Amino acid sequence: MPNETPRRTFAIISHPDAGKTTLTEKVLLLGGGIRSAGTVKGKKSGKYATSDWMEIEKQRGISVTSSVMQLLYKDIQINILDTPGHQDFSEDTYRTLTAVDTAVMVIDSVKGIEAQTLKLFKVCRMRGIPILTFINKLDREGKEPLDLLSEIEETLEMDTFPMNWPIGTGKRLKGIYSIPDDTVEFYNESHEREILPYKEVTKLEDYEQEALEEEIMLLEEAGNDFTMEKVLNGTLTPVFFGSALSNFGVQSFLDQFVKLAAEPQARKASGELVPPTSPDFSGFIFKIQANMNPNHRDRIAFLRVCSGSFERGMEVTLSRSGKKMKLNQSHSFFASDRETVEKAYPGDIVGLYDSGNFQVGDTIVGGNTRIQYEEMPQFPPEKFAKVTAKNALKHKQYHKGIEQLVQEGTIQLYKTPYFEDYIIGAVGELQFQVFEYRMKNEYKVDIEFNHMTHELARWVTKGKVTEDMTDSRKMLVNDQQGRSVLLFQNEFALRWFQDKHPDMELSTGWEIL
Ligand code: G4P
C-alpha cells in the first residue's frame, strides 16, 4: 500500500476463549482482505496454518509466532498483530504490544476480566497504548452491562465510555443502540445486518424502550465525558458490546475503530520523540523467530517501521553496533505465505532475514540518523526451571547456546548465588519448549529441565538479602544484571515473607524492568 494510505496497527488483548479468533476472522472478512494470515486457527474445522516453521508447531498444530494480518477498510490499511495465548503465551506475546499503536481488549461478557487480559493490559498501560474494548458474547446470559463497565473501571482503573448499549442480553437480546449514530442494530439468527434510525424503530416492546432510554439517560448523567485525548492517552476506553460469533456489532465496531484507533505514533528514541513523518527511515526489532523454515535454518527479525520509508535493498545501520548492512530480504509475513516487501511505511511490520545480526529491541536506521529506540522491557516470569546439560562434556556449546538465546530474548536467565546454578524463567511454558528445541537443533546440546514450583518473582528494591532467604518456599537468585530476585512458590509464601521482613521492599518487576 502506498504511503498515502493511512495505517492503523493494533493487537487484540484477551484471555483464551474470549473470542479473539472469531472477532479477527469477522473483521478480516469485512475488509477488502489484502491478505490474511494462516494463524487464524480453524479449530473444529481442522484448518490449521499450513506452516513449516517449527517442528513444535507441526506437532501441536498451532502457530508459535505472532504473525501479522492486513486488511483494507474504508481506505485505511489495518495491520493486526496476532498475540498468541493458551500454551503459546510467551514473552513474544508481550513484546508484540510494543509494536502496536492501539490495543483492542476483548472481554467475554459472561466471565468479565480474566487473568491473561489483565497481564496484557498492564503492558498497554505501561506503554500508554490506547485501548478499545469489545465486550463479546452478548448472545449469552452474561453479566449486566453496567456491572461490566464498573468492573473495567475498578479493576483496570480506567474510565469507560460505552459507544453502544445492549437492548436485552442472552435469550432476550434484541439489538444494540449505537450512541454516536442514534441507530439500532437488530440481532437476528440469520446474521443479516439490519440497522434503523432510532426514531423509526417500531419493533421494541414498551418495557425495552423504557429500559433503554433510562439507561442511556443514566449514562449521560453519571457517565464519563468522552474526549479523544483521553482515548489516545489510554485513560478512557470506548466500549462496544456485540457478538463476534453472530457477526453482530462487528461492522459497527470496525466503523468506529477506524475513527478512534491511534495513527502511527511518534516514539521515543535517544530521549526525543521521533514522529512518523520524520524523513529518515527508522524502526525497531520487536521479535526474532528462528527456524521458520527448517530447510534454510533461517531466522526472521520482525521490524516495526517507525519513521521514513523502508525500501528493499536499502543500506541501514544497526544503532547498537554501528554496523552497516543492506536489507535485501524483506518479507511481509503471513504464516507460510512469504511475500517480498518492496516498500513499507510507518505502522507496517516487515520480516527481515537475519543471519544473526539482530537482537530483540534493536534499532535500525537509514541515512545518517543515529538514534536508539527505548529498550524493550523485560517481563516478569512466572515459570521457572533449573537447567543442566545432559552431557557435561558439551559445556562449551551449552554456555554459548544459553548466552545467545538469552540475548535473543528467548528465555530469561537467573543464577543462584555461590553455586551459580542456571535457572531459566519464562512467562509461558512454550518458551521452555522453544529453548529446548533450539539448544538441541542449533547447539547440539540435550538439556535437562528440573521444573520448579515457584511462580512469583520479586525484585528486592530495598533491604538486605541474606543467605538463609532460600528455603522450601522461596529461593534467592540473581538476574542478568546482578540484581537480587526472590522466587516465591505462591502468594501465601510472599505474604509470609513480607510479614516477617517489613523493612524490605519488593517489586513485581513491571516497574523496574
Ligand atoms: P480465542 O481466540 O479468544 O481463544 O476465542 P475463539 O474466537 O476461538 O472463541 C472461543 C469460543 O467462543 C469458540 O467456541 C467460539 O465459537 C465462541 N464464541 C466466540 N464469539 C462468540 C459469541 O459472540 N457468542 C458465543 N456464544 N460464542 C462465541 P468453541 O466451542 O470453543 O469453538 P468452535 O467450535 O465454535 O470453533
UniProtKB/TrEMBL annotation:
Ligand binding (GTP): 14-21, 82-86, 136-139
Domain of life: Bacteria
Cellular compartments per GO CC: cytosol
Main location group: cytoplasm
Key words, A-Z: Cytoplasm, GTP-binding, Nucleotide-binding, Protein biosynthesis
Keyword flag Kinase: no
InterPro entries the record matches: EF-G-like_DII, EFG_III/V, G_TR_CS, P-loop_NTPase, PrfC, RF3_C, RF3_dom_3_sf, RF3_GTP-bd
Gene Ontology MF annotations: GTP binding; GTPase activity; translation release factor activity, codon nonspecific; translation release factor activity, codon specific
GO BP terms: regulation of translational termination
Family affiliation: Belongs to the TRAFAC class translation factor GTPase superfamily. Classic translation factor GTPase family. PrfC subfamily.
NCBIfam families: prfC, PRK00741.1, small_GTP
Role description: Increases the formation of ribosomal termination complexes and stimulates activities of RF-1 and RF-2. It binds guanine nucleotides and has strong preference for UGA stop codons. It may interact directly with the ribosome. The stimulation of RF-1 and RF-2 is significantly reduced by GTP and GDP, but not by GMP.
Protein name: Peptide chain release factor 3
Gene: prfC
